[in-house]
Input
Amino acid sequence: MKRFLETGNFAITEGAIMAGCRLFAGYPITPATEIAEAMSKNLPKVGGYYIQAEDECGAMHMAVGAAAGGMKTMTATSGPGFILYADPYGWAIGCEIPIVVLNSQRVGPVSGITGAPGQGEFYNARYPTQGGNYETIVLAPNSAQEAMELTVEAFYLSERFRTPVTILADQLVTDGLEDISIPETDEEKEAMGLRFMDRKVHMGPDFYPATDEIDLPPTVLGKNTGAMCSDWTPTEEGYDIETVEAHHKPSYRMIYKIRNHTDVIARHETLFLDDDPDIIVVSFGTASRTVKTAVKKAREKGLKIGMIRPISLWPFPDELFNKKSTYLSVELDYDGQMVREVERAMPCDSDIHFFGKCGELPTVAELHEIFDKLLKNEPLKPEGWEKEVW
Amino acid sequence: MKDRIEILASGFGGQGVVRLGQIVGVGAVNQGFRVTMLKSHGTEQRGGYVRTQLVLSSEEIDSPLVEDPDYFCVLSSAAYKQFGHMVVDGTILYDPAMVEIDENKTTRQIAIAAKETAVEKLGRPIYANTIMLGALTGATAGLLEKKNMLETMLKIIPKFKEENKKAFELGFSMTTS
Amino acid sequence: MDRLSKKYLRARKIPSTACSGCGLGQCHKALVLALDELEYEVNDVVWGTSIGCAGRQTFATWQGDNFAGTHGRVYAIARGLRLAIPPKMKIILTVGDGDAFGIGFNHLLHAARSNAQMTVLVCDNLGYQSTGGQFGWTTPQGIVTDSSPYGMSEPNWVQPEMDVLAMLKAAGATFLARHVSMDGVALVKSLKKAVQNNGFSLVHTVFPCTTNFAKNALGSRNAVNIFRWVKDHAAPMGEEKHNTLWRTGIYHDASNSRPEFSAALRDSVAEIQRRYQHEGSH
Output
């Protein structure tokens, strides 16, 4: 085991290379630039390629193009680049090409604050491209160490599901320094729970089965299988077709191969849920770091407060929200994105509240103030708001 | 030992506040601590202060935020004004050449004449940062091990080894003798 | 085309889905002929296509591996793919004028800059015909289209003083040619050279759209008229007439004169790997 004090960016690079990533295509953008830099330095050492593209749209197309040729590939960006991924992301979903995408969220919309954390791409990560008719796999690390581990997991899931997997990080995950343990032996990797899968090649002649089956090798170009992949609605053989009947089959597949196998994807962290807590705090990514400290300290004070942290963010883990309680969604955005999902998933006689910050983490002190208000049934009044929004 | 030690360092850009944090962080990792370190970025860097927030623990660290610093190394008045109020039970190490302190504050405040000593004893103000590192190491009363911190510092700053070593010792003696 | 169809193309895609009388078939046939004359096998080529008439009608015609990319991005896809597939395999792209010179132009220029091996056959029907017939970046001035109902007023990128091939040459392309689809042997010859260049090659080929362009520009869907009109407005370089729009022939041939993108990257990576293993340091 190697131990370093390093950034999440470094950790992610280590995880990717460990998972077999041999091509990274990127475009400089704060706060994900360091990943590109580390990739440009470390990939050639293991025989891998770094490509710096003309823009993010080109970057992800290059990464997907190489993945379509049988390589394990990755790209990383932040919000303004992530929206330019819409085009290739859709291509990869439709062509069922495994690839790993990392989004280190900053404060938006548009350029916003570049060097500060945000979580405004909660829904953007779920719907990274147009047209609908697909499910998305999104993993949300809250530390550099977990970012490394989830990078490995993202490669694994992308192979099993034949689809892109997004790691939804934020500026503090990627820029923050932490002690990171990098496993070196197979035993260490296994002990850390890391899962790996090599790229296999679908030998055709069909392009996809009209089922929800997973663990099918992806179609690979350049192997003389007569492979066909396209952005058109495909027949099962891969020919282009424009009929509603034909479109139903790949749509069904893209939705249900993920929806029907969420057990393979599901990851979460929960704390103090067994005694019917008065408040259950919901958060993901780095916001959950201060939330966890705040919840633990609240417990020390005798307050009945629990915590849910979805790690696999999409498909959204509805099943975690089965207790009647007062839910509090803590997010690094002001518009309250996850609060809608929690409200949808929780028992209908529960309450839902929202606390949002942007560009910095909520402090433990702030969270305790919120808990107190909620326990006294006082309205939450975020600064500058006339009344509680949620 | 407390289950969580919080260290804050802040000053102007270019004073080496991030470097100071990095040395402490790497040194702590070498001692087997779990460590988180946040460094301030972007507009803060061009504005009033640069900030490094370090948390050390023998357990996994949840919040990486410093909200109740055990040690605050402060190298500018702006930083003192901004964060000084956070220190309740902790120790403030300040350079009197750059920081005007609030004398009414009840917390422990130790003047470390880093810049002045650097110029007087080593001929250049750039060693002030290493003096502060030595002083912090001393102030932690063994939490940060002297030998380890010195070695870590020399590894991270490979230039002017003798001067840096001397600077570290000078700082260390300011908080231990 | 029977023998060639059997050898290279998929029965399901013959006859093609193009409109009756469409000149795209001439471009497609010329490319297959060139590959046959070069004695390429089905397995020697990965064939990519773009959005629009040119891409849609040529997708999955090739018996080997095929892909249809997103609009304007096949040049970026091809650069990534180029690194994943065997160096000897050729990437061939059949794309439209809107795809190459409009939405994908930035990617195209960077593909040329990096000299990534791809033979780009731009099948130019002088505008956006699959969406009903809007003007594009090669639509001649004065031409009526659905989105230039008073005549195309903007300049275009085949005018001699702002030729798109000049831009591509400046951007680093190592083989460039221009033709009209009825050029026959000359077109096949250029395509052969294009494929033989281990670098970025582009052959710009104007073909007649009998449906939308012909109807809007000439007032008739009569195939004979539009074929004659295209042919009349083309002339080999150096033999231009007063009404020449397309100066045909090989515009620039620096084939195999500079390193190919993936080859250069492979070499560089191999060198770094050697050095790294030799030093054995982190």
Remarks:
- Chain A touches chain B through 28 residues (CB under 8 Å).
- Chain A has two domains: 2-191, 269-375.
